[in-house]
TrEMBL record:
Record InterPro entries: SuperAg_toxin_C, Superantigen_bac, Toxin_b-grasp_Staph/Strep
Boundaries of every Staphylococcal/Streptococcal toxin beta-grasp domain copy: 130-221
One cellular-component annotation, GO: extracellular region
Protein name: Putative exotoxin
Entry's family note: Belongs to the staphylococcal/streptococcal toxin family.
Coiled coil start-end: none
Length: 222
């Protein structure tokens, strides 16, 4: 229920913040009311099944309390993220990578997502090489996959979580046969990022980290 309510409320808040039109938010509310009557796994599956887009090495042109703007070709791209402390890390003219799910595509493209500093690695690698997957206590191999590709030294927790869960949804029946668990990212400096697979990762949890500092990733599905 927590995941369903979070998904609906943040969708409404997002549209009100971006558009300023209550009528549009009410229209979306009507379209998403079905999420409330479905079980939590349906909501999680729908959320993590979304397609996402990535823009690489783009210049920041504006920063608000809950968004970052950048120019991509002829479009202004706005990335909405409700985490003021995280957004304070960026400034105009920074070069960033943008990741997000598309919410509006008119005069501007508006994404719900995140950004990280542009810092490419010399050779593309894969999260699978550092990931251990346990399904009902039994270890299962994680194969290299495009969803798990790493091309930038700086990674965001939000994008990493989304990519891994989308992989698990497509390859390991997450939210079909397995409804709960944890995703734990262990860092070489002793820091640990723990994500509840039974809930959507909130914007308040967003942070970035260096790929080279990842020791390993443990996933427990049950």
């Amino acid at each position: 229920m927590k995941a369903k309510l979070w998904f609906l409320l943040t969708t409404l808040a997002f549209l009100i913040a971006v558009t300023g039109f209550i009528g549009i938010a009410e229209e979306v509310k009507a379209k998403t009311n079905g999420l409330i009557t479905e079980n939590g796994n349906d909501s999680l599956k729908e959320y993590y099944a979304q397609n996402f887009e990535v823009y690489t090495n783009k210049e920041v042109t504006g920063i608000g309390t809950n968004y970052i703007d950048a120019k991509v070709d002829t479009y202004n791209v706005r990335t909405v993220l409700y985490n003021t402390d995280y957004l304070k890390r960026f400034k105009n003219q920074d070069r960033v990578n943008i990741w997000g799910t598309l919410y509006e595509n008119q005069q501007s493209k508006v994404y719900r997502g995140t950004v990280v500093k542009y810092d490419p690695i010399s050779k593309v690698t894969n999260l699978s090489y550092r990931t251990n997957l346990f399904v009902n206590g039994h270890q299962t191999k994680v194969n290299p996959d495009k969803l798990l590709e790493v091309k930038n030294k700086q990674l965001s927790l939000k994008e990493t979580d989304f990519r891994i869960r989308k992989y698990l949804l497509e390859k390991e029946q997450l939210y079909d046969n397995y409804n709960s668990g944890e995703l734990i990212i262990e860092m070489k400096n002793g820091e640990r990022h723990t994500i509840d697979l039974g809930d959507i990762l909130s914007d308040s949890q967003e942070k970035s980290f260096d790929f080279d500092n990842i020791s390993h990733i443990d996933i427990y599905m049950k």
